[in-house]
Amino acid sequence: QLVESGGGSVQAGGSLTLSCVVSGHTFRNNAWFRQVPGDNREFVALINSDASRMYGDFVKGRTTISRDNTKNTVYLQMNSLKPEDTGLYYCAGDVQKVVGGGWLLPYKGQGTHITVSS
Q1: What three-state secondary structure class fits 85?
Q2: Quick one: pLDDT band at residue 115, thresholds 50, 70, 90?
Q3: CA angle 66-111-52, nearest 5°?
């Protein structure tokens, strides 16, 4: 199970830290994705079990994904937020990138919404 929290409304330039509490399964990796209007899903960040990370182009340099294994929690710290960052952010586990650029998300949470106003 993956349960997100930490979303909310913030002004452009602000920061938010999202949390994802993980239970019931040990994942090879955890990732954050964003759902935007038009039902498009965008990759935000991923952390592997060896703590290696990768980020989506639109958040590079202003976002950090981390994990606290003692709390079974994955975090997404987002800085310098922009209005175009608005969307539903959800946590996923055991994700796989597939040919063509898509992703398989066998496990995912319900999401937490971020609204960034200008």
Answers
A1: helix
A2: very high
A3: 20
